[in-house]
Amino acid sequence: MDDRNTTVKGETPLIRADIDNVSVWKSVGRYKNVALIAMIASFSASLDGYQINLNGGIVSNKGFIRQIAGPGTTIIGGKYVSAWGGIQSAGQTIGQILLQYATEAFGRKIALYIIWVTLCVSIFIESFATQWDHWLAAKLFSGMGVGMLQSTMPLYLSEIAPTQLRGFFINAYSFWFVLGQLFASVALNRLNAIDPLNFRTPIYTQATVIFVYIPETPWWLASKGRLDEAANVLRRCNGNVRGYDIQEQIDIMTSTVTEERKIARENAQEGTWAVFRGRNLLRFIIAGWPKITQQFVGLSVFNTYATYFFQYAGNKDPFLVTVILSCVQLISMILTATLTDRFGRRPLTVYPYAVTSVSVLCLGIIGCFDYTQQTLSSLLIFFACLATFSTTGASAIGYAYAAEIPQQRLRAQTAGWSLASSNLIAIMFSFCTPLMINGSAQWGVKTGFFFAAAGTVSTVIAWFILPEVTRRTPGEIDEMFERKVNLRKFDKYTTGTQRNAEGEVPNV
């Protein structure tokens, strides 16, 4: 690509179009084609959520217990559950670290095909697993596929979405993820009622093929100098949108990438480890912190191991509880998806995590009493629902931070490394949480105390470091980081392009 920056208004590189100033609600009615593509692409996340909940819920299935642990066993030992959860988180980390190189070199769509093959391998092994180590191997590939999808799909959605609807489309990924979790919970709960020894059927229903129908992202194509192809994708996605100038959008993309490369050369931030150099290191930390916080507030207790947690707590129908929690997640995602572009990323991340920290503290307090009594048991479920509701939305916005905060030229690498860092912590909790609940620690419900303390610390850090990037273009985000704008004042900052356009009325 030509590194000369010719797309300017005055002396300022063009990094924002007039159509980016159209309100969120008006934009919803205009971008119909890209909305359809985004929903088709994000549907794949239902498999992601299905896999996560299947791993956490199937350990309480009577048929699975009999097959894997042998006759006479009622609850699978914590060490096995820890191993499966840990290897899945390890697989997620491996997938996120490795796939980023293919994502950047060959494109987002090729990366999605690699993900599909990896998930098919995991489903094949799950279908024929008869021993605990077979399931261990399946969870490795499952984790790799899930991790790859987590780091690639939000990135894909952010690169095809219009500026003012980026949060909505990225959250579509999490919406389908939650719906997939609900499918798994309902399937396991229904089987528990009509055929409690059957655990294979939910495994057979996972495969889906949709990636062939979606285009490559115009941002990646433009960054590789394939401008005609980028223009064709924009025409397919937004060609019928009133006021949308395809050439102007191409110019903005090339201008943004050219400016990033210029700054990288000037600041010696090129090469394999550019993600961890200069301001990019700060962007890497911010991109990963919301997802790291979700681990510290106790996601593994009230999500991954919800069935195991409530089974240990004496609930007679732990599968039903997970269905309730999945419905709560769905409600949370509907609200988050519709509000994030209106009210912003920062408040919908920090405040919900604070609520979660209080909720798990209440779980710990209840654990000090006889929580098998009906009143306290109901309170246990209530606070688990509250923690699930608040964390689901904040965690979903974490994908927006991972996709939006990095420079365009480092988007795949930064998203992959930041989410992998979160999963490194998830590996630790995947091993430790079952042991906290029903291992050598024997904390049971009092496990909530640990996550209340860890969650409070991580939420306070989030308050200080998470900026507001809602309705900002990639070029604007670059400018604010390079000018070292106070992270908590991003929403009040006026960029160079905005100053040049002051007083102008968008002609859209």
UniProtKB/TrEMBL annotation:
Span of domain Major facilitator superfamily (MFS) profile: 34-470
GO CC annotation, single: membrane
Subcellular localization(s) per the UniProt record: Membrane
Membrane disposition: Multi-pass membrane protein
Gene Ontology MF terms: carbohydrate:proton symporter activity
Database matches in Pfam families: Sugar_tr
Keywords: Membrane, Transmembrane, Transmembrane helix
Sequence intervals crossing the membrane: 110-129, 168-188, 319-339, 351-372, 378-402, 414-437, 449-466
Main localization of the protein described in the UniProt heading: membrane
Family that this chain belongs to: Belongs to the major facilitator superfamily. Sugar transporter (TC 2.A.1.1) family.
Protein's name in the database: Major facilitator superfamily (MFS) profile domain-containing protein
Organism, scientific name: Aspergillus nanangensis
Higher taxonomy: Eukaryota, Fungi, Dikarya, Ascomycota, Pezizomycotina
